[in-house]
Amino acid sequence: MRRRLALLVASVSVLTLIAFLVPLALLVRTVAEDRTTVRATADAQSLVPVVGTAELDTIRITVEQLVAESGRPVTVFLPDGTVLGAPAPRTPAVALAARGQSLTAESDGGREVVIAVQGRPEGPAVIRTVVPRAELTAGVTRAWTVLALLGALLVVVGLVVADRLAGSLTRPITELSTVSHRLANAELDARVEPAGPAELREVAGALNHLAGRIQVLLREEREQVADLSHRLRTPLTALRLEAESLRDPEDAARVTAAVDGLERAVSGLIREARWRSSPAAGRAVSDAAAVVGERVAFWSVLAEDTGRRVTLELAPGPLPVGVAADELAAVVDALLGNVFAHTPDGTPFAVRLAADADGVLLTVADEGPGLPAGAARRGSSGAGSTGLGLDIADRAARAGGGHLELGTGPGGGAVARLRLGRPPG
User: Fold this and answer.
1) Can you tell me where the transmembrane regions are (predicted)?
2) Separation of alpha carbons 300 and 292, rounded Å
């Protein structure tokens, strides 16, 4: 923008100067020619009284004095054919002046000034002088140089003023861009100082208001999450007591583990909300091998009850990834939960965790009917669920520097590949 404003001002300045300086330069040349012509005419007219009345010798002496003073050739044509002064041919202008008409004409050597003199008994005499072209344009080149330098100076001044003006416009815009990027990077305390034109000050005020509203909304969201957690404490405690009152120790342990998992999920949700509201918080790191192994072991109990064969391939750990342990556990639960929700009992599935140079790849494959169309869309489900499981997994993968891919296996079952990046540093 700054460069474009400077280019615009330079273009306008040059066009304006051309519009004024070209006619002015032509006027300077015309004035110089006219001034020189008038001076030469006045010198020639000073001979009129002498040529009209004096003797031949007097005319000759006077003409020689004028030539010496002016430096221009002066010729006097008498009616009897006598030529005094500088030798010169009888030009058409001289012939016309011999009939009594004074005039100025252009010639090869310059500008020819001829004056008809009345009063001699033989008839009109003619005084002729020639103004050389060098004398006609004397001082014009210097005047044009001064005008050109003045025009260049005006262009430079215009560019300096335009640069200052552009700077006063671009600086607030740059600050607005910087603050918007800081807000995008979760620096919610960033504010812009209103400056520049009224429109930019209004935009700065709107951006500051937006940042304040974001802080308020995030604070309200955190409070709502905290309230939700507090409300869930009571039913979770009741579930824990009910689990402990079960007579079968295995059932009691399984239900208690489920309650513990739910409580961890709620606590993780609160921590995640608080982490997102803290700009100084760093990205959590977890061991993918430990988390995946623990969650597969948990789901293996249900798989055994439903007659599903589980194949687990874990790369040796630790395998650090840029996702919190609770969040990664929720992702694994979502992927495995989809297997149980969308495949009939007895359908085998496999979980494979491998590491490579790009990070960690988690693959969950089953031998069921495959994924329905649109299963990856948030809120889309064909089995009566919330339809958020795959979306949670996808968002976690993107937050961890990876991505989620859904496909179909060789046998027709669904395959989910979750790529997780390694933590920075």
Assistant:
1) 143-162
2) 12
